[in-house]
Amino acid sequence: MKTTSTVSAILALICLLLSPTLATSGTxxxxxxxxxxxxxxxxxxxxxxxxxxxxxxHSASPVTPSPLNLVEVAKDATDCDVGCWINVVAPNVxxxxxxxxxxxxxxxxxxxxxxxxxxQTIEVYRLSNNEMxxxxxxxIELRKWYYVRAELRDTTxxxxxxxxxxxxxxxxxxISGSVGVAVQDAEAxxxxxxxxTGPEVTGNVDEISLPQLSVVRGNSxxxxxxxxxxxxxxxxxxxxxxxxxxxxxxxxxxxxxxGSFEAETTDSLTNGLRFYRxxxxxxxxx
Length: 286
Description:
single chain; 286 residues; mainly beta; Immunoglobulin-like; Jelly Rolls; 7-stranded antiparallel beta sheet; 21 strands; 54% strand; disordered N terminus
């Protein structure tokens, strides 16, 4: 049986690490829960479609390599943080096979931060001339989710995959521009939970702000998870084994139909940490 101090420590870590950050005026979130891609996304829109809450991008043709297709938002972003889950699902002719973030894109220039499955590398290169700025060998598996994040500060860009530092690049060619996601030479690349935060960033694509979770001790072998549910949304309480995992177990669902209420559910304590979040999906449930 866990001691009181151990349980308290676990609960403190859960609350600290997993309580969602509320969307602010400087944050753009897209959880891709709308039926179609929001109008604010521009560029190669016809190469992307939403399927079951996931954005799927395509770039496949007899041409080798196939073109880099992208969609982008936040036209004038400068210093910002950009993150997204990326899953390279199906290659084309296996020459490039990239799922990527596009950064500081203006005209024909910008930067591509790519998971390159065909060459088993993580790359950062300039869009206009393909100049390689950063390259790291890394095992990139098909049909596996990776969380890709970039921190853009003046002329310095710092890159992470699954929370691990990949490296930094200092380059003054582009210090502002749009950000988004890109796919090249693949039948399908999936994207989920795209977020960009910065002083020039406004709006929240699907207008979904995740509720603040309250995780407290119930008894010696369970925790209580509470949050405020508001209509008209469906809520799904999910448990993860790792804060960077994209695989979850739904432990409870709620429907906010008529008015706000405090939703509550319980989960069993385990020998390892459990991390919690809530999916909030619009519904026709008024």
